[in-house]
Specification:
The chain is of the alpha/beta class and 269 residues long. Helix content is 46%, strand content 13%. Bound molecules: 2'-deoxycytidine-5'-monophosphate.
Length: 269
Amino acid sequence: MTRGVRDGGAMSATGFAQVLTVAATSTFIVTIDGPAGTGKSTVAHRLAKRLGLEFLDTGAMYRAAALAALQRGIDPSDGPRVAELVRGMELHFDWSCDPPELYADGVAVGDRIRTPEVTRAVTPVASNPLVRAAMVHAQRAIAHRHRRLVTEGRDQGSVVFPDADVRIYLDARPEVRARRRVDQLRTKGIETTEAEVLAQILERDRMDESRKDGPLVRPAGADIVDTSFIDIDDVIDRLESVVRECAGARLDGRGPDPSRAAGSTGAQP
Ligand code: DC
């Protein structure tokens, strides 16, 4: 994967109208981390659009690796074989789509990375340190070309971009996340119970938080936003204010607020 990752290079459909003055000469990275069911993807994508930044869904990259393993009959828990597979994969985004479309070995992965089977398989894949190393490298390479970015995942503010301009951690109560997931599945015609989904969510949290490499943590200096009882539009408004405040601080020369500085978690990008 590392060697195979390339970047479509095209400009995204979005412009940079509102933050261009801030970011024209340098990078501007907003990281959004948090567990599943907090509305992270929707929030990150809409925030990026609102601010004229680009959007990176890093979960999609792990999902594409899990899908590839399943397609080749490789056990997702077989660490060495999955790592070998991922190292040989060519992953890139087509940035002319909104959101950017992920291609694995030249084929658009589409919704095939969102099936329950892939969701189950991705946990061991994302716990594989060799896979994580390749993904971290790939994500930094993407940010090198797409320098004004909202990136979302589990380790973006803690490991991949610890010096990001803005680090956000979205959270929500497990019961609320379970209810959202049940509603989401129902719209797809899949009936399940809240108890069942809650058990899956708690297990996934446990795995994400306890893995050795890139565990789900609250990044140092992150703004923590609990979305349990806040409407998604209000969450986006709130994050927009946080981002604009940071951008303003950079513009007027105040620089980053030291109280928001990252700790020593993870490597430098
Ligand atoms: O956000 P998601 O559900 O699409 O993520 C898919 C899986 O990948 C999930 O098990 C968490 C993992 N992941 C990760 O470990 N690190 C990331 N930066 C993004 C996702």
